[in-house]
Amino acid sequence: MSDTNVKPGEKKSGMEKYGEVAYYPGCALEGSGHAYNRSTKALGSALGLKIKEVDNWNCCGAMEVKNIDPKIQTYLSSRVMSIAANKMNMDVVMAPCNGCYHNLKKAEYDLANDEKSAEVVDRLSKKAGHETYQAGQVETIHALDWVKETIGEEGLKERVKNSLKGIKIANYYGCMYTRPRHIFPEKDAGPGSESTSKPHFMDDLLEAAGAENVDFPLKTACCGGAHTLSDSDTSTRLVANILQTAEASGAEVIATECPTCHSGLEMHQIRAEKVLGIKTSVKIIYFTQLLGMAIGLKPKKVGLHENISDSFGFVKEKGLA
Amino acid sequence: MNAGPVKRDSSLSVVDIGLRLDRLIAKPPVTEDAAELLALGEEILQHWVVAKGQEPTQDRREGFRLLALHRQGANKDPSFNACRETCRELVYHYNLVTQQADHPDAGQRARMMAWVANHLYLFIAGKMETQELGDFCCASRPLRERVDGEMPAQ
């Protein structure tokens, strides 16, 4: 399956190309974001999509390694892609976490454009005893791309059993999904592509499942996720503002597609009430959970019980349970 | 659109910008507040630029000084681009509100603009606090002390 002719940023399309992908859950999806892991797998399975988890995967380098030495982060991400390409013979890696997705795309860009990064990756790969990843061996996509490119809006409409009709949703993409723009050239490729300034793939998919998307101006705003432990007050204030803005825009639900953003919104929703006296009631639910329930999966099947916030009453009221 | 913010005789402190935004949000804001909201966005960006030891630019990008100030603030500090789209949303809402003042959604758009301006303020004020720049640290101390007293240690 490996296609070494794929150029960085080249956009593939269709079930034949994305119907079976290497799955890179990353650390967060094994911990605080397990509901996202469970719902991504359940949704994919119900839609007839196949995933093969990357063997013996490692951390993508996240923020911590990147802040100390960006080239080590490039290596760590390249190892994940090397395993997918050279050991598993896959040509697409799907990463649902914005941080992982961002880091793999950044590594891809650096390897294609920075000789020193390529040298470091080659040296460390040899030292670690695995084949060096070469830029272009795999294409990294997000879970949003995966569903959008394989099933799409029309396919979803055909599969909807519990319409999200009547549910007002603010789609929150976070800042890592589109930033920096130069590592995601395919996102601004014109009609049909995603957009780095006003992303819409999640909007499109949820609307196809019946939801009513509201005009939400903080789709890609920072939630303070990187400071959630070192400076909780800043994160709480930023999250409170996102939650209040979503409510002011008429939303009942904030749909998420990043485990860091999601758990940050949930935790700081509670903290904002305790510390700042700001109470909000908007629900925070992964897009994979919403789509899963829309196509008939039970709330537990998509890990609703694993969320920090309790939205069981809400989904029952809306006829999704 | 070539926009001109409200002229101010003196700059507001970081804390005062936050208080002014709180008041505008509570009011709630109307279409006539769009220019002030844009100006408050420029002022908080100016604080960031000054805290980095630079003279705030008077240039405009795409017709807006706010966007030029953001670009100046992000120079050699790529993480500052996390507020790039927030700045652009602020400008977008300014255009929506001022160019379609009679639109049925104009009031709602003004309210959304205020929330966006507040996010820009919170992002920059928080960043200044984290980097111990400007006057935000002292202003936030009462909140921090209250939190430390009430919340279990993390």
Strand content of chain A: 5-15%
Compute the separation of the termini of chain B in Å. 48 Å
Unreliable parts of chain A: 1-6
Poorly predicted runs of chain B are 1-9, 135-154
What's the tally of helices of chain A? 13
Mean pLDDT of chain A: 93
**What CATH architecture of the largest domain in chain A would you give?**
3-Layer(aba) Sandwich
Strand order, main sheet of chain A: write it out.
2-1-3-4
Main beta sheet strand tally, sense and closure of chain B: none
Separation, N- and C-terminal Cα atoms of chain A:
39 Å
Radius of gyration of chain B (CA) equals 16 Å
Shape of chain A: globular
Descriptive notes:
The complex is a heterodimer of chains A (321) and B (154). Chain A is α/β, with parallel strands linked by helices and 321 residues long. Chain A is 45% helix and 10% strand. Chain A has 13 helices and eight strands. In chain A, the strands form two sheets. Chain A has a four-stranded parallel beta sheet with strand order 2-1-3-4, sandwiched between helices. Chain A has a four-stranded parallel beta sheet with strand order 6-5-7-8, sandwiched between helices. In chain A, helix 2 (34-46) packs parallel to helix 12. The longest helix of chain A has 18 residues, at 70-87. The N and C termini of chain A lie far apart (39 Å). Chain B has 154 residues and is mainly alpha-helical. Chain B has one domain (14-150). Chain B has six helices and no strands. Chains A and B meet through helix 10 and helix 11 of A and helix 4, helix 5 and helix 6 of B.
Indicate the topology.
The complex is a heterodimer of chains A (321) and B (154).
Chain A (H helix, E strand, L loop, with lengths): L14 H4 L1 E4 L10 H13 L3 E4 L8 H7 L1 H18 L4 E4 L2 H16 L1 H14 L10 E4 H8 L1 H8 L8 E5 L28 H8 L3 E2 L18 H17 L4 E4 L2 H18 L6 E4 H8 L17 H6 L4
Parallel strand pairs in A: 1-2, 1-3, 3-4, 5-6, 5-7, 7-8
Helix pairs in contact in A: 2-12, 3-4, 4-5, 4-6, 5-6, 7-9, 8-9, 10-11
Chain B lengths: L13 H13 L7 H18 L13 H10 L9 H16 L6 H25 L5 H15 L4
Helix pairs in contact in B: 1-5, 2-3, 2-4, 2-5, 3-4, 4-5
